[in-house]
Design a protein that fits this description.
302 residues; alpha+beta; 10 helices; 50% helix
Length: 302
């Protein structure tokens, strides 16, 4: 069996491939969409292939700058699409394929789905600065060169973004074991239609987002409060149990343990929990059923 050749780092293609996963991570966290990220990387490749690495001292920095600026331009397209979107909009989940230890998408520094929802409330420039600085560790001076702003302006953008994000999402992440146990407990109660158990595990101020894109049953607005959330979930359980043949699997979604439902091997829904600081109750529930956002979810093996 012949070995796959390693791209030459001096060749434009080799340089691009070497830094592709970094660019994917930055752009995905800026846009929250795998499809739009792939389009941006294609535009970045076209810009790069015309220019090439000759005379560029730092190809990595140059490529990230191209990708970030293409992503900022793409943001306008995403925003226009959001204006006519049916129901709540959620980011496109990154679901790891448990059969592959080398899952390309999850080699990136993806933030949680809940954090991506918070980042949607930032301006495009604030989000770019936050992602580059807080997620990827870029210094403000380097970010200033990437987005063509003065370092003082970048520091101001970073301060506004960080203050806004931390006000809406405290710096707390549940231990993976706690998250897995809470996810399994919630799924058992939700699928089984156990209202008493749901009322126990849902926080009083829980919010449920259901993103079906108008193509699958969903609540057209986020549902707030434990009573309303439990009734909504119980309704889904009854309809799903009667009409669908669903298989449940646990997968890593944007780096966190989550539940994925499959129908005849094809992805039907991704369910991600946000937990209270104590880790014992669900404070936020994100359910993505829009088929267009599940095209990159690995299919269930027969």
């Amino acid at each position: 069996m012949s070995e796959i050749p390693v791209p030459d780092a001096e060749d434009p293609t080799g340089v691009f491939v070497e830094h592709r996963e970094l660019m994917f991570g930055v752009v995905y966290n800026m846009l929250g969409s795998v499809a739009d990220t792939e389009d941006v990387l294609q535009d970045t490749w076209l810009s790069w292939s015309r220019r090439g690495p000759d005379g560029i001292d730092n190809p990595r920095a140059y490529l990230v700058r191209i990708a970030v600026n293409h992503a900022l331009q793409r943001r306008a397209v995403v925003n226009r699409r959001r204006e006519t979107y049916v129901g709540p909009w959620l980011p496109e989940p990154l679901v790891a394929d448990e059969t592959s230890a080398d899952d390309a998408a999850l080699r990136t520094e993806s933030v949680s789905l809940a954090m991506l929802v918070v980042l949607e409330s930032l301006s495009p420039l604030e989000r770019a600065v936050f992602v580059l600085h807080e997620v990827f560790g870029y210094p403000h001076t380097e970010i200033a060169e990437i987005i063509d702003r003065a370092p003082a302006a970048v520091r101001q953008l970073a301060h506004r973004a960080r203050t806004h994000v931390h006000a809406r999402r405290p710096l707390y992440e549940a231990h993976p074991r706690v998250r897995r146990e809470a996810t399994e407990r919630f799924v058992r109660a939700a699928v089984g239609g156990d209202i008493a158990e749901l009322m126990e595990i849902l926080a009083p101020d829980v919010t449920v987002w259901t993103d079906g894109g108008g193509m699958r049953g969903q609540a057209l607005r986020p549902v707030h409060g434990r009573d309303k959330a439990a009734r909504l979930l119980n309704g889904y359980a009854k309809r799903g149990g009667a009409h669908l043949d669903l298989e449940l699997r646990y997968r890593r979604v944007n780096g966190d343990d989550a539940a994925v439902l499959f129908e005849h091997g094809s992805p039907y829904a991704v369910i991600v929990l946000d937990l209270t600081p104590e880790g014992d109750r669900v404070s936020g529930l994100f359910v993505v059923t829009n088929p267009d956002k599940l095209t990159h979810v690995p299919k269930e093996e027969a």
